[in-house]
Design brief:
By secondary structure, the protein is α+β, with helices and mostly antiparallel strands. 53% of the residues lie in helices and 12% in strands.
Length: 474
């Protein structure tokens, strides 16, 4: 009996280890199955550009929602229900099945959106953001993931924002390539006024229906668009627009401008112009480059009419036509200017300059208001953590600097990066000195020893220009 018991225990122990070993492999298989199904949807959408998908809701599965829930950062803000990310993960088994069943019954009730405001860079006014509940956020991400498999096949190469692969650096690289390597001489710098708050719900649903014929998903998107907004303790109805903050909002806004702007420009406008023209768009920020000024003026007038048809307007203070490019440098002196005007795109100021060989190139530097915002944010961070251990302070500061360098670290912008680094050095020393009376005796020599033990992240150009140009082919 003793031998049989030992053997049985050994057998059960082995079975337990087998189960533990197979669980990760099962999860990996489920992940591969989900990705394979999306690839199949993408392949079908690519091969049949006019196909309407009438059955998509079954791809929003328990595993897909769980995966997207696990990708939401733990510190993300709670929605109107007050449920944190950790609490939503713990109670996942309790709410996922009723949620999925309500989607298939077309009875899902989208929770209200909590409205918060964040300051705009360099301005007194604030930008409104919508905070969905954590569970609804995971569902939005899952739905956007399924729909992106279709729309990624439709979106044009001129669109970069809100997509899985193209980024702001791709958009900047494309602008550089178009202007520096082509015949462009004029740039229309455009910005849409209150874009997210102006989307017409009827047009959104009509655009979605071009490719999606599943009534369950159409109903789900309509519920999200009509979800109430909680502000100052009162729920306000939402008749137009989509709150910034949800994954589905980014996808729908990108889809809106795909039909309103991208297709119109590529299929209607370009064929009627005298010279070359290129559109580069990052969600609602876009520039249009032209060879001739006459084409730019015609398109600017037509653009206002086109946008007005869909409830959109250009922001007059941020929309301007600028002579920009290799020819602008030659003409600047004739027109009484020392140098050509600059343009602003995606947080960077673009200007005309020359390389070491004397050839024209597009220079890029951090836009002044963005630079001020970064410095203010760093000062606020250091004030908040000044009583933390020095090693923890350095970790927080370096995390901020790493993100700043990664975005603004384009070739030619090293001076602005160094300016941020030097400001951090000076302000951090001031913070350390203010911690106590003893800190007042913190000389530069002692401060440099602290930096040697726990160094600050030095400026680095993360994306050399050649790398940006290579990425532009995506």
């Amino acid at each position: 009996m003793g031998k049989r018991s030992a053997a049985g225990e050994l057998f059960l122990g082995n079975m337990g280890s087998i189960q533990r070993e197979t669980r990760p492999s099962i999860q990996r298989e489920d992940q591969l199955t989900m990705e394979t199904k999306l690839e199949q949807i993408a392949a079908k959408a690519r091969c049949e550009p006019k196909l309407r998908f009438t059955s998509l809701a079954h791809h929003i599965t328990r595993d897909r929602v769980r995966k997207n829930l696990s990708q939401i950062p733990k510190w993300s803000a709670a929605g109107v229900d007050g449920q944190t990310v950790e609490a939503a993960r713990r109670s996942f088994d309790g709410w996922i099945e009723p949620m999925l069943q309500s989607i298939h019954r077309r009875g899902y009730s989208a929770p209200d959106i909590r409205r918060v405001y964040i300051p705009k860079p360099g301005k007194m006014e604030k930008r409104p953001l919508g905070v969905p509940t954590v569970a609804d956020r995971a569902l939005q991400r899952s739905t956007a993931e399924v729909l992106s498999a279709i729309y990624e096949q439709d979106f044009l190469p001129c669109s970069f924002g809100g997509r899985p692969k193209p980024s702001a650096h791709h958009a900047l690289a494309t602008v550089n390539e178009v202007i520096a390597g082509g015949k462009m001489g004029w740039v229309l710098e455009a910005d849409l006024k209150n874009f997210f708050g102006s989307l017409n719900h009827d047009w959104v649903l009509r655009f979605v229906a071009h490719r999606v014929g599943d009534p369950r998903l159409i109903s789900l998107i309509r519920r999200w668009l009509k979800a109430g907004v909680l502000e100052d303790g009162k729920v306000h109805p939402n008749e137009e627009g989509t709150p910034q903050g949800g994954s589905i909002s980014v996808l729908l806004s990108n889809l809106y401008l795909h039909y309103v702007l991208d297709l119109w420009f590529e299929r209607v406008v370009k064929s009627r112009l005298r010279g070359e023209a290129r559109l580069v768009r990052y969600i609602d920020d876009f520039v249009i480059c032209f060879q001739y000024r006459s084409d730019a003026i015609r398109v600017q007038d037509a653009l206002r009419l086109r946008l007005g048809k869909f409830g959109l307007t250009l922001e007059p203070t941020k929309t301007k036509l600028v002579e920009f490019g290799r020819f602008a440098q030659r003409h600047a002196g004739k027109r009484g200017r020392k140098r050509p005007e600059t343009i602003y795109f995606l947080g960077l100021t673009l200007y005309c300059t020359r390389n070491l060989k004397g050839n024209f190139k597009v220079g890029m530097r951090t836009e002044k208001s963005r630079l001020r915002r970064s410095l203010l944010s760093l000062q606020e961070l250091m004030r908040r953590i000044r009583h933390h251990p020095i090693s923890d302070q350095v970790g927080e500061i370096n995390a901020f600097l790493r993100g700043h360098y990664a975005y603004y670290g384009v070739a030619g912008n090293l001076r602005c990066l160094v300016k941020v680094y030097r400001a951090v050095e000076r302000y951090w020393r001031r913070m350390l000195r203010s911690r106590s009376w003893a800190g007042r005796r913190l000389t530069w020599e002692k401060y440099n020893r602290i930096k040697a033990r726990t160094p600050l992240l030095t400026p680095k150009l993360r994306l050399p220009y050649a790398g940006l140009q290579a990425l532009a082919v995506l």
